[in-house]
Design a protein that fits this description.
By secondary structure, the protein is mainly alpha-helical. It has one domain: Na+/H+ antiporter like fold (Up-down Bundle), CATH 1.20.1530. It is built from 15 helices and no strands. About 4% of the residues have low confidence.
């Protein structure tokens, strides 16, 4: 608990600084940057795992509140987005794999599992089990998420979409009793999702479970409430601090090299997302910012929070990232034996 309080206090300094500067996702980006700097210096910190899961559930409830009856009507129109997602994931992984192999000197296994545009934990565990460099795989994926979360919101805020705000706009709730009742319903939805997400075998259960139950109570009109923004800011602080602590114990020289490599591969992935978004926006019927967020290789929770904070096609972005993670987690390890046989045939021919 002391380590957690220390980490959150340090993260809060960065969050407050970013908030004072009126930057998007201030409490997540600020805490992430500051705790990363302290983590690289070796300061002994941690974030309690249960607290992180609870705050992830808060985010899930917030995401679920963005679903409306129009969401279901849009699902059929989003089939083109699914095809675009598959194309983006395949193109990104192929080109980044070649980058890691030919320019960065990674071995095949490490390059293969590092190039996957998602599935941090599964890629790390499977890649290390198959003989890859687990530490490199973990650092590449951690830095990818950090770089995407740091750059994409700022690009939308100051470049592509300068009128977006750093916080989600919540609808007004008339009456104090209605407000309290709405919060009670959200608390119940979040608790049910938190405990049932795992048994229901949902991906990222502590995010998806609360999101599903929250979406149900909003789609059925039971409530229109959203979690208090103070609680959402706290969730941003915990998630941002957790991202920064992934670099705990990493040497400065090592993290500098990984960040340089990851910057190149992440830029390549985002470039593919931007290109596909501009070329397909009319066909898909989703805004360019929405498509870029949906195709960007960030974490499920992090990119959903970016969409929520910027108010950009939240339901579409959340659903696409859920599908992306499911596809990557299911396909990348499953296809590895086939890819390994291709490598062996290439070696035999050589």
């Amino acid at each position: 608990m002391i380590k957690t309080l220390k980490a959150l206090a340090i993260g809060a300094v960065g969050g407050a600084a970013f908030y004072a500067a009126d930057l998007p996702l201030a409490w997540m980006l600020g805490s992430m940057c500051v705790t990363t700097a302290f983590a690289v210096r070796g300061l002994d910190m941690a974030v309690d795992n249960t607290l992180r899961k609870i705050m992830t559930a808060v985010l899930g409830v917030m995401l679920g509140s963005s679903f409306t009856t129009e969401t279901f009507g849009s699902l059929m129109n989003w089939s083109g987005g699914l095809l675009l997602l598959i194309i983006s994931a395949f193109a990104s992984m192929t080109l980044v794999y070649l980058l890691y192999r030919r320019l960065c000197g990674f071995d095949r296994i490490t390059a293969y599992f590092s190039a996957a545009p998602g599935g941090f934990n599964v890629m790390y565990e499977t890649g290390e089990a198959m003989g890859g460099d687990g530490r490199t795989i973990a650092l590449i994926h951690a830095s990818r998420i950090m770089l995407v979360v740091m750059t994409v919101p700022l690009a939308f805020r100051f470049g592509i979409a300068g009128d977006t705000s750093g916080t989600a706009v919540a609808p007004s709730i008339l009456g104090q009793m209605d407000e309290l009742m709405g919060y009670g319903i959200l608390l119940l939805a979040g608790a049910l999702g938190y405990f049932l997400g795992g048994p229901l075998r949902l991906p990222a259960p502590h995010l998806m479970g609360p999101m599903v139950f929250s979406a149900v109570v909003h789609l059925t009109g039971i409530t229109t409430a959203q979690p208090p923004m103070l609680l959402v800011f706290a969730a941003q602080l915990v998630i941002g601090t957790s991202i920064g602590l992934r670099f705990l114990g990493t040497r400065v020289r090592e993290i500098s090299r990984i960040l340089l490599i990851s910057s190149a591969s992440t830029a390549l992935m985002i470039a593919i997302a931007v290109f596909l978004a501009y070329e397909s926006t009319d066909m898909i019927g989703i805004s360019i910012p929405g498509l870029v967020l949906a195709l960007s290789p960030g974490g499920l929770a992090e990119m959903s929070l970016v969409a929520l904070a910027l108010g950009i096609d939240v339901a579409f972005v959340s659903i696409m990232h859920v599908i992306r993670i499911m596809l990557i987690v299911a396909c990348v390890p499953a296809f590895y034996p086939l890819v390994k046989r291709i490598w062996e045939r290439a070696d035999n021919k050589a």
